[in-house]
Every structure is written in C-alpha cells, then in structure tokens.
Amino acid sequence: MKYQVFIVLFMFCLFSCKNDNEQVAAATETSAESDNSELTVEDIELEIVDFEGLRKYLEVEDDKTYVMNFWATWCAPCVKELPHFERLNDETSDDDVEVILVSLDFPSKYESNLKPYIIKKNLNSKLIALDDADSNSWIPKISEDWSGAIPATLIYNKSKKQFYEGSFTFEELQDAVKPYLK
Hints:
Low-confidence stretches: 1-15, 18-36
Largest sheet: 6 strands, mixed
Strand order of the largest sheet: 1-4-3-2-5-6
C-alpha cells in the first residue's frame, strides 16, 4: 500500500506543473505583493477540505460564475499566473464572478509555505486547501480531460462548464470568462 501511495505521489509531482513552453524563471511577479507586515501565519484561517468538501463549490445552483484555479506554491507556472486571477477577482467583483483558488500544496507545508505566500502576495480571492491524497479518484470528477497537471482552471456556472489545463495570460483569462458574463 505504501508503494502505491508513493507511486501516486511521485506521478502527481512528475506531471504536475505543466509548462506550456513558458519561461518559468520569472515566476515570482512582484506586482501582487504588498506590505502585510501586520498579518501573521496565525491570522490566516485556511479552509482545508477533502474532495467531498470541495464538491459543495462545484455543485452550486446560484447565478454566479465561478473560476476555480488549481495551483500550488511549488509550481512556478501557477504562481506566475496567480496575479491574473487576483486581478480578475478585483475587476469582476460586481459581475457575479467568484474566483476560488484551490491549493494543492502538501498539508505539511501549509504553515511554512502556503500561509506565508498568501500573506506575501496579499491574496484576496477565496482560498481553499485541498487535502485529499486520492487524486486518481477526484481528478476525473473535476474533468475527464484533466491529466492531473497544474495549473488547471475550471470555469463554470449552473448551466455550463469549461476546463483548461495550463497557464493563462490575463487577456486569455478574460476571454475565457466573457461567455459566462450576463
């Protein structure tokens, strides 16, 4: 059993972080950074869920459009595109669009990596940590087309959904969300 878990985690790490031929050396943008010197790791209340807890966000029947991005602090293309999701969240707050950032960081890194990153980058979107090691069961429930690589994004509302694997520019993200706006 330990061998199977190791293989699943190894494969997840191996295929996680889809590059899309982008240069990832400039992965840490400073545009979203701000001085949050008052906030501490203890101040960050992180919602930690398994897939069943995440399901409630996937099965909403309201009039909002949801942009759910799967990412991790160790994934350079993920952190490079996060400012685009934050900007979308800021610019569409009146348009019934909710950005949900689903962190796939390892639970042992929540305190040392994830929470400090949230503070450093001043992330204001809804943030959830997905703690469910059985990725082979929940990945196809997000999308049958998902290989498991991140970044990955699901845009949906009560009547339609579209899955994207790979990074977005801000313009590409805007274009992907436009068909969902009223």
